[in-house]
Design a protein that fits this description.
alpha/beta; Aspartate Aminotransferase, domain 1; 4-stranded mixed beta sheet; 13 helices; 17 strands; binds pyridoxal-5'-phosphate; Acetylornithine aminotransferase; identical protein binding; N2-acetyl-L-ornithine:2-oxoglutarate 5-aminotransferase activity
Amino acid sequence: MARPLMDTYSPPDIDFERGEGAYLHARGGARYLDFISGIAVNGLGHCHPAAVKALQDQAGKLWHTSNMFRAPGQIELAEKYCRDSFADRVFFTNSGTEAVECALKTARHYHFAQGRPDRYRVITFTGAFHGRTFGAINAGGNPAYLEGFGPRMEGFDQVAFGDHEALKSAITEETAAIIVEPVQGEGGVRAIPDVCLRGLRELCDEHGLLLIYDEVQCGAGRTGKLWAHEWSGAAPDIMAVAKGVGGGFPMGACLTTEAAGAHMKIGTHGSTFGGNPLAMAVGHAVYDALTAPGFLDHVTDIANTLRQQLSGLVDAHADKVAELRGRGLLIGLKLKDGYVNKTLAAHARAQHLLMGAAGDNVARLAPPLIIDETHVREAVAALDAALGALEPQ
Ligand SMILES: *Cc1c(COP(=O)(O)O)cnc(C)c1O
């Protein structure tokens, strides 16, 4: 058989045709409970009526003009993002990795604009994931993603996750910024303790560094706050968001304070599609749903229910599961040596539960934020059966 696609992915042999709420329907009629939601993307579930309507209405009006012209909805969505966060300025992108690129460029350009072009280095952490463009793989520092793609890009200094002394000694006169995911996603669903985020904020203030949060995965309500860092009270200077903010429509954004972003003048950055009318229409619908009264309280409540039941599972399968990780509805089950996260996901699929895998042998759950107790019970029963079937490898 011809293989027209690059072999970069290895999807299972299922063809999904339709999604509705927390469920995906495959050709042939099988129904799956979706507890990975497009990798923390479909926060409102599949085909949320408000998002569908927003997209359909906009599709009949205007698709694209490029940023040569004002895109309908862009200023208004940026205003909403700023109204409810630390930010004063927004740049819209199509993806997470582009939001990260914008964040890194903005951080370097900030020091350039201050007459300090020599301050360009960015401190990153082991286990980080920031996307797959050249800048982002170099920031992420994962050797598996860098191998075969030429020399390492200059200007990134990676320190071990949680090693405070290494972090302090990595800061030099050339350091521009620190980039961190408040909850590491791909790296193994590891939440940074609130006190550590506050420590990073203090360190950045002390040394004149910009603090960049990558909330591409943990943001958009997933932890029960609109942005994950809100739990800590430590605001960034720059933040990259994507995944959940579009609810399944490709979009992202780079948010900055006035001080960290006002120097990005005409010509310093750009995108043909970023912030286009279709993305903005869906972006408004998703944002309005996430910020509707009670929505985030629901996320916290249902996350507590799910986590409680999962810790019961961890105890019941203590020979196979080492710990429960993450925050809110970004959840990791770290498996013990000898058991493989991807095999667990395959067993879960056989139980018609969809889940993912992350680094560090962690099985990942990122259900839609709209799940209720019925979904929780169904997922926990399926996962219980999947763990029961899991054999050492
Ligand atoms: C997924 C992800 C990215 C990359 O987003 P894309 O939309 O795939 O480019 C960047 N950072 C984090 C934390 C992510 O989880």
